[in-house]
Specification:
The complex is a heterodimer of chains A (367) and B (222).
Chain A (H helix, E strand, L loop, with lengths): L1 E5 H12 L13 E7 L2 E7 L3 E8 L1 E4 L1 E6 L1 H8 L4 E7 L4 E6 L2 E6 L1 E2 L14 E4 H11 L14 E7 L2 E7 L3 E7 L9 E6 H14 L3 E6 L3 E6 L2 E6 L8 H4 L6 E6 H12 L7 E7 L2 E8 L3 E8 L7 E6 H9 L5 E6 L6 E5 L5 E5 L7
Antiparallel strand pairs in A: 1-5, 1-7, 2-3, 2-6, 3-4, 4-18, 6-10, 7-8, 8-9, 11-16, 12-13, 12-15, 13-14, 14-26, 16-17, 17-18, 19-24, 20-21, 20-23, 21-22, 24-25, 25-26
Chain B lengths: L1 E12 L3 E13 L5 E4 L9 E3 L4 E5 L2 E6 L6 E15 L12 H12 L9 E7 L6 E7 L2 E11 L1 H15 L8 E9 L1 H9 L3 E4 L2 H4 L12
Parallel strand pairs in B: 10-11, 11-12
Antiparallel strand pairs in B: 1-2, 1-7, 2-3, 3-4, 5-6, 6-7, 8-9, 9-10
The chains are: A alpha+beta (367), B alpha+beta (222).
């Protein structure tokens, strides 16, 4: 195998593909990247057996073939001089040579036959516009759990149908849901729980491939995203996703409207003192809210904001990071916070309804 | 426990051979079959020893300790020239090493609230004995027995320990399908992965919550 390609192109795509390579596996080949060259294209592929990525790179291929290179090649290519990179697999020596500018590297490599067979990427495809899908995923996926003891919560429920795209994620302390209408929605509804990580990688891939739409194939056990010439395959998470509609209260006792930027700034400042699991307190009284945090070891901070609040005073505590996440994901200038009582969940949404809802459970306050 | 102070020589034959020349030594002979030969130096470590299970034969002027099958037997021969002191003491029931406070408290709290481990879970007994030491709790639910090992921090070693217990427990009649749960205040990701690969459950529990001192975090759902 022998080829020449642009350093920029190869470095960008190698970095992208290598994100699917495993950093933890004891199987060496899963931590590496396969290159397959044929007729003007090199396909870079990596997988950790949960997620796989195949990314094309334009190249002048003098001799086709396939080889598996260490992830280190990503760092080498990135630091080579601008211009063309020459790549050669010397099969009889078990090495690849990489050169660009005045630099030359010889790296040990593995046989392509050791690389696992990647999942099939065919099936009934649904064409989905990139922008609404990626935006929805970005705003929702942060609420997914990172605790793999409940795998279903590490995923995002994705539903595409006549109502457009709906995504839901929850870690049981908070829940983010967003519904985005589509110009040409499909008549049939399709639904799957896709790992949050796969959606994040999908967003990166879509940005790199610079395409307007992609093909989504949802099968029984996997999701395939065909984005330009690139493909991302992810296993689906099996299980029963919590019924989010039942979790969102129908009615709130109070609806308080904030200026989003102002509230975000206050939460950032006061949140400095809300360390570890210490709550950030919101004490509402007619006309204002006082945001405060107390650290036993460090001290205390508070700041008041004028708000339209009436009725009996109400004090509620939230996880500072979760509350900030919710506010940051609101679009528009205004944030609406719905409250019932200090031990019932609060609901954040945009002042002008954009289909995004962020439900957050409070923390008990030891007054 | 028998304590013998004697002028003796000790000959060991087994994986290697060694001879301790004639001198005054303390021989500790424990009721579990352990034999340790101490001199008045060398710190806490015996000069020679044999761990149970052992076969011990006492002759007029010798104590012969053997271990292992005939094909690869280990033999410790203590030849006594002069007996200086020989006393036996009843030590009562052996006191176990005191477990880490959190582990012990978690074990007690869990024994009082086994349903925390799963719906319908009932306690069979604490300190369920196995040939290599007791597992913290033996419980039972509708699917059968469950061995529970309690740690402050759940590590790979804790999973290995529970695996060894389960090997012995599953060899008992009627316990072949015994499951395992590792319970700790925090469990390392590697330990979780290893436990999962061995079909064991792992569960993080907060001692304060278990005792009812701290109310659980509010959640949108269970």
């Amino acid at each position: 195998m022998r080829l020449t390609c642009s350093r920029d192109e190869l470095a960008t795509k190698l970095a992208l593909a290598a994100r699917a390579a495993s950093t933890k596996s004891t199987i060496p080949v899963l931590g590496q990247v396969r290159l397959t060259a044929h007729e003007g294209i090199v396909e870079l592929a990596a997988t950790d057996m949960e997620l796989s990525l195949r990314v094309p790179v334009e190249a002048t291929v003098a001799e086709g073939g396939a080889v598996v290179v260490p992830r280190l090649a990503t760092d080498i290519v990135r630091t080579l001089a601008n211009g063309q990179v020459e790549f050669e697999h010397r099969a009889n020596e078990g090495v690849v040579s990489l050169s660009g500018g005045q630099s030359s590297f010889t790296l040990n490599c593995l046989q392509a036959t050791e690389f696992p067979e990647l999942p099939a990427d065919d099936g009934e495809a649904l064409s989905v516009p990139v922008a609404p899908f990626v935006t929805t995923a970005e705003r929702v996926a942060r609420a997914a759990s990172r605790d793999d003891t409940r795998p279903v919560l590490t995923g995002v429920l994705v539903r595409i149908g006549p109502d457009g795209i709906t995504m839901v994620a929850t870690d049981s302390y908070r829940l983010a849901v967003m519904q985005t209408p589509l110009e040409n929605p499909p008549a049939q509804t399709r639904e799957a729980i896709i790992p949050a990580r796969a959606l994040q990688e999908m967003g990166r891939l879509a940005a790199a491939m610079k395409v307007e739409s992609f093909d989504l194939i949802l099968s029984e056990s996997q999701a395939v995203f065909r984005i330009g010439g690139a493909r991302l395959t992810s296993r689906l998470i099996d299980g029963q996703f919590p019924d989010y509609r039942q979790l969102i209260p129908d009615h709130f006792e109070h609806e308080v409207v904030f200026e989003r930027a102002e509230l975000g700034a206050v939460l950032s400042r006061i949140g400095v003192l809300a360390q570890r699991s210490a709550p950030i307190r919101l004490a509402f009284e007619p006309g204002q809210v006082t945001v405060s945090a107390v650290s036993e070891q460090l001290g205390e901070g508070h700041e008041s904001l004028p708000v339209t609040f009436s009725g009996e005073p109400l004090e509620i505590g939230f996880n500072a990071e979760f509350l900030r996440d919710g506010v940051e994901n609101i679009s528009g200038d205004e944030v609406k916070l719905g409250l019932i009582s200090p031990l019932r969940p609060g609901l954040l949404q945009s002042g002008g309804d954009d289909g995004y809802r962020y439900l957050l459970m409070p923390i008990r306050l030891n007054v | 426990m028998r304590l013998i102070v004697a002028r003796c020589e000790v000959i060991y034959a087994g994986r290697v051979s060694s001879v301790l020349p004639m001198a005054t030594r303390l021989i500790m002979w424990k009721s579990d079959g352990s034999i340790m030969v101490h001199s008045d130096a060398g710190g806490y470590k015996p000069e020679n020893w044999m761990t149970p299970p052992t076969r011990i034969v006492e002759e007029d002027a010798a104590i012969i300790v053997e271990k292992g099958p005939a094909s690869r037997v280990e033999r410790l021969e203590i030849r006594i020239e002069e007996m200086i002191s020989d006393s036996a003491h009843d030590m009562g029931e052996a006191a176990r090493l005191v477990k880490d406070g959190v582990e012990r408290d978690l074990q007690i709290a869990l024994a009082d609230a086994p349903q925390t481990l799963g719906e319908g879970m009932k306690l069979v007994r604490r300190e369920y004995p196995t040939p290599i030491g007791p597992v913290d709790l033996m419980c039972i639910d509708t699917d059968g027995y469950v061995a529970v090992e309690v740690k402050r921090v759940g590590t790979i070693d804790a999973v290995e320990q529970l695996t060894r217990y389960l090997e012995y427990i599953r060899a008992e009649h009627g316990m072949e399908a015994c499951r395992g749960i590792l319970v700790a205040e925090s469990i390392k990701p590697q330990a979780r992965t290893l436990a999962r690969s061995r079909d064991m459950d792992s569960l993080e529990l907060n001692l304060a919550e278990l005792r009812g001192l701290k109310e659980p975090d509010l959640k949108l759902f269970g």
